[in-house]
Amino acid sequence: MNFLKCSLPLFICLLFLTGCWDQNELDELSIVMGIGINIDKKGDLIVTYQVVNPTEVAPGITGAGGGKQPVFTVYEAKGRNLMEATRKATKQTSRRLFFAHARMLVFSEKLAKDSIYQALDMISRDPEVRSTIQVLIARDTTPSKILRTFTAIDKVTSDEVATILKISEKNWGENLQQDINEVLQSIINEGGQPLINGIRLTGDKELAVTAQNYEVGDPARIQLSGMGVFKEGKLKGWIDGPEARGILWIKGKLVSSAITVPCQGNKNGYSIEVVRSNTELSANTKSNEPSINIRVYPEANIAEANCAVNLEKPSEISTIEKTFNAVIEKEINKTIEAAQKFDSDILGFGELLYRENPKKWRHVYKQKYEQIFPKLKVNVHVDSRIRRSGMRTSPFLFEEKKEAPK
Amino acid sequence: MRNRRKRPMIKTYKKLTDMVAEKSFGEASSLQTETFSEEIHSVEQKIERKEGKLSPVLHVTVDSVKKSLGNPVDLIVREFEFELQQKVTATLLFLEEMNDPQLLNEFILAPLMSLTSDKQSTPVPVSHALHYIKQNAVALGRVLDVENEEELLEALLAGFSVLLVEGNTKGLKMGTTGGRMRGIEEPTSEVVIRGPKDSFTESMKTNISLIRRRVRSPDLRVEKYKIGDVTHTDVAIIYLDNIVNPLLIKEIKKRINEVKTDGLLESGQLEEFIQDETVTVFPQFMNTERPDVVVGNLLEGRVGIMVNGTPFSLIAPTQFIQFFQSSEDYYMRYDISTFLRLLRFSVFLISLIAPSIYIALTTFHQAMIPTTLLFGIAAQREGVPFPAIAEALVMEITFEILREAGIRMPRAVGVAVSIVGALVLGQAAVQAGLVSPAMVIVVGITAVASFAIPSFAVATSARLLRFPLMIISSVFGFYGLTLALIVIIAHLTSLRSFGYPYLSPFAPIQTQDLKDSLFRFPITKLFKRPEKLAKKNETRTQPYQVKKKREEETTR
């Protein structure tokens, strides 16, 4: 007890003499929402930071000259590596850059073609940056342009892009959210290669970087555009459209989508709404030439039927199911073809083989996986179920036909 | 450290008396020798009086009493005569306003003055007058003999009236205690919506009667002590003999007997004398002004301690969890009681750490704030000149000032205080850019939370601990806050109330008692009294069968 009493002053000193560790008042921080990385001719990194001006973004804050300042500002710095550029940026910023809330990391296409490896380490090593930061590639534009674009609904570009990704993945399924963690994981996985979403700028590009952008009805917009296929950290090419949806089918990530299925001569007759889907992957490693089995079990509703069919007949539904299966199979096969063409295992088949038979992977497949993958036999089997047809059964076109003979 | 039940208060007392003795000695020596010798003289007289009997000569005794009391204005000396064998002179002594005049007039003076020896077959000699009067004339319940002058004085001061009869060496003290006391009113500090509305008063007699009326058990024990060399305050301990642990009673008696002080005005003072640990912010006694709370605790094997002159009685031993329980919990349905108990506990946590969390979040862990909220808080902080800790301290202290002002203020001015407080705290400070609106919300929720804790005693400990916690979290963030909370919990587990662990039934865990802790199980499921407290008589109710039977019958 006596000891405690004596040491009490020391404890109190401890409180005040240790300094304040990593204390930062909120008004001493610049909240970075987006990071863009480009590369110049010399090979230096050009790093762009999109920093929010909280007074303009926060709801219901009056005073402080609301509406006179832009909602965000962009700093740009050059450096031989990411850290150097980040610290160099303080030459322009009045506050410390704070990365914990960054939602988007954009690479330029140029950097991606060169190698993304040089930029990934710091982002994943820094304790401040979250591992949920979305990784993207600016297609036909630069990260700096993307980060300077004013958006209409969400006030901060990075926020909007991250939300677009989420919504699009859930409703359309041609893009797969790839945060820094997933990108690194797919690099580390056996034989795996990363897959990164692309974004592009559409509309009036001159207008995009001015605040007037959200004052016009048809502003320049940022739009998701395909997924970039990498090999050894270098961008090899792009997978666009339905082929990109194949990736989600294979990975079992497809939540919902709308798929067009032909019907009685009308090529775009049905629109089928996928409501949930389940994917089973298995590998056959018995021979030296392995094969992969993909089984997809989607559940779907009929969302549109633009031809005269009698949907009350179960046989009709099973016909639709069959064509629906074929469409999905085609999508998946196209994706696999594309991946094999790039010779980049973006689909995680290598990891699958490894899990199926680790020994064989290590001793047989791994060394010549580059040769195996392009010729890998993949069996795709889709077994769909169409459950509901919305508020009506047969389309009005059919009802019309039915009544005609009377 | 193992055997840590210390008695610091007793030690301090010893020191205090030494100091007093030294002081009085020093003062006396500086006075004139005459007064000094007089003092010695009076002390000698006192000793003499203690030993001697009362003088049979009336005026000698009366004069001596007058002298001892300093001839006070409220000492009434009523001389009268009555007839036995011959005319006898008697004197009735009492302190005005401490006695019920109606009782004095109708049951003592009236029958005595009309007393004649006619009815008696044999005349009563004067020397037996007192006995005769006691048996025949005084129509009162409490009539006792007074043997010497010390007893006489004590009786007078306790509110008895004393009858002296010429030629007798004894007196009679008669329980005519009366005078004005506050009536039984609704409790002011523990208001309930459903439940008894009576509360204790300043009179211990009334308080004991309130408990007696609720417990018609022969096992109810009330034991009286006198504490205070000057005030002679009555202190009573109340318990149920068939439930309570006899060792506990022994310990309580011992500690009460050890208390040496000049005066005891409130149970809070007694609490400090007999508590286990002095260096703590947590209350080690529950105090209540509700008789039903005392009875409920007696039934659990606890002991009530009452002090004359205050409506607040103490409950010992006390567990931490009791401060989050309201008597109403047992009168309402168990589901809502459980909800309210959980709410109160979280409210305690809020009032303890809400400002600290705000400080830690905004100065260290900005990454943990949801992005949109971060923008909001950052925008509010924009232009505030002080760091978050200064802002928080200023606001918290302002609130404490307002609260203190509100309590001590005459009621008429209270409105002004609240208007100024609300405006200064809420509006002006924010508009002037001195504090951020978020801080006002935090201080507001903290304040409201601290009022929602049913026990004022434990609310104050949260109030005190809040400030060190704020400072620690401004220096070390959540890391420091967590450490500080661990220290607080360790301290809580180390506390004992009369040897009973303060954190029980959680640490050490007592599964049966958990049924009535943060949760309240249905009353039919609370079979047992607290395990450690009521070893003697554990079963509270037999498992309730009647209802089951009834249900079976109806389903059939």
Automatic annotation (TrEMBL), chain A:
InterPro entries named in the record: GerAC_N, Spore_GerAC-like, Spore_GerAC-like_C, Spore_GerAC_C_sf
Report the leader peptide range. 1-21
Where in the cell does this protein reside? Membrane
**Keyword Lipoprotein found:** yes
Coiled-coil zones: none
Keywords tagged on the record: Germination, Lipoprotein, Membrane, Palmitate, Signal
The residue ranges of the Spore germination GerAC-like C-terminal domain are 225-390
Q: Which PROSITE patterns has this protein been placed in?
A: PROKAR_LIPOPROTEIN
A biological process from GO:
spore germination
Q: Which residue ranges does the record assign to the Spore germination protein N-terminal domain?
A: 22-200
Q: How does it sit in the membrane?
A: Lipid-anchor
**Mainly resides where?**
membrane
Q: Which family does it belong to?
A: Belongs to the GerABKC lipoprotein family.
* Protein name per its UniProtKB record: Ger(X)C family spore germination protein
Q: A single GO CC term, please?
A: membrane
- Organism, per UniProt? Fictibacillus phosphorivorans
UniProtKB/TrEMBL annotation, chain B:
Name it.
Spore germination protein
Does the record carry DNA-binding as a key word?
no
Query: A Pfam family name for this chain?
Result: GerA
Q: Which UniProt keywords apply?
A: Membrane, Transmembrane, Transmembrane helix
- Under the cellular component aspect of Gene Ontology, which terms does the record hold? plasma membrane
Record has Membrane as a keyword: yes
The residues forming the signal peptide are: none
Q: Which residues cross the membrane?
A: 342-364, 384-402, 414-432, 438-459, 471-492
| Family affiliation | Belongs to the GerABKA family.
Q: Where is this region: Disordered?
A: 534-556
Taxonomically, the superkingdom here is Bacteria
**Might you name a Gene Ontology BP term for this protein?**
spore germination
